Amino acid sequence: MVQPLNRFKESASQTAGPYVHIGLTPNFSEINGVYPHDLGSSMVNDKTRGKRIAITGRVLDGTGTPLRDALVEIWQADADGLYNSPSEMRGAADPNFTGWGRCATDMVSGEFRFETVKPGRVPFNDGRLMAPHVTFWIVARGINIGLHTRMYFGDEDAANAEDPVLARIEHRVRLPTLVAEPVEGGYRFDIHLQGEKETVFFDI
Amino acid sequence: MSEGMLSNRKPETGAFFQRDREWHPQAYTPWYKTSVLRSPQKALLSLDNTLSEITGPVFGHNILGALDNDLIHNFAKPGESAIGPRIIVYGRVLDERGRGVPGALLEFWQANAGGRYRHKKEGYIAPLDPNFGGCGRTITDEDGGYVLRTVQPGPYPWPNGPNDWRPAHIHFSIFGHGFAQRLITQMYFEGDPMIPLCPIVKTINDPAAISDLTAALDMSATTPMDSRAYKFDIVLRGRRSTLFENRLEGN
Question: What is the ipTM of this complex?
Answer without folding.
Answer: 0.97
